[in-house]
Amino acid sequence: MLRIFTRLTRCAALVSLLAVYSSGLAQAQSYEQLYSDYRDSLYQIRLIERSSNSKAGLGSGFQISANGLIATNYHVVSEAVSHPEKYSLNYLSVDGQEGELELLDVDVINDLAILRQKGTVGKQHLVLAQQTPNKGETIVALGNPLDLGMTLVPGTYNGIAGGSFYDRIHFSGSINPGMSGGPVINRSGKVVGINVATAGNQISFLVPVDKLVSLLEDYHKESGSQGNGALELQPVIHRQLRNNQQRIIDAILNADWKLRPLGDAMVVGEIVPSVQCWGNSSENEDETLEQIAKGCTGQDVVYLSEEFDTGRVEYEFFWLEGDEALTSSRFYSAYEDEMSGFFPGNSASDDDVTNYKCQQKFTTQPRISSKQPDNGEGVNGETSAQSEENQKPPKANGNRDPVVARTSYCVRRYKEFPDLYDVFYVSLTVDQEKRALVSHFTLSGFTEESASAFTKKFVSEIEWH
Q: Number of helices and strands (H, E) in the chain?
């Protein structure tokens, strides 16, 4: 019986191994067939520097209609949007056919662009999926990594990633530079997403295909019944940025702002899941100065160009406290040094934004154990404010006196979108000898009304013991 059982076990194991091998072979053949079936709809997208007629950037794209429409990422073609006099766009097919591309429409919020082949168009295009993959389902990314040729990368669909203002599919597969804008297809060959970014270690992100469907619908609606004309992109981008900042500010202002203790104050924590907070503490042994930091930021931004991003929300707090050996003057000297490095969270060049204009004031806020109605008429939500140029700081003589702070509120305007601004706020308390709170936030790409509403809420939410 033992011998017969052993033989049967060995036979079962052999059958199992053959089944696994056959399954792997079938899967490999299936991937090979997918590439063979859809390779002619794939393209390398090339950013061409006009004066040298040479490549200045590369990405991937795919044909989505019989009349030669091609989809890719906005960041692949952004320089041609910002500097059309300097850059043009070309495509290269898998078989080596080259041609020019016309940029038709973009979605900067979801990092998408629609282009059209000039002249002879490709004979094959991909179909956009109408159904979302099941979590755990195998999907396949296609693209041209590092200019090495079209590559196929299988991975796993893990649903929409959390912790962001922008919908992104979490894809367990390796997306590398050059694959941006390429399609991700299911086993039926239908597009379920578009390559957009990677965090390394088999963690990548895709734009859901429904964002591309919406962009196509908007394009056809805006371009008329023919659907052939290129849109004027600056008004399109402006509208998208305005709608996006309104969506973000509405979500933030309508959320439940939960406070957390920090030193003598209660400060804002994670307002919405898209804003994540981190903490840290350190002690400067030379100055015997302790610092406790709490920083909160949205995880993603809207890419406009290599030097310009927007859509950022971040805020942070620092509690500083000196021990008995530290004199008040040395505390404030160290305090100034520690806090001199504040800068806006988003990048922008002189071509994109004006210089910051700042208002500096001394402000006061009541030291209370619970919220009371704000009856003050201070600017941007402060209880009261005095011009720093004309006034000395108000004095606080006891623990129950108002908290006194030196506050800067700085604004710079977007040159292409003059009703959108970056706002930089920092407030440093100055009413105690060896204890201080710093509050800071940056908003990028917000209207004056949205920024003012956020500022008033942000300031009023800080509570003091």
A: 6, 25
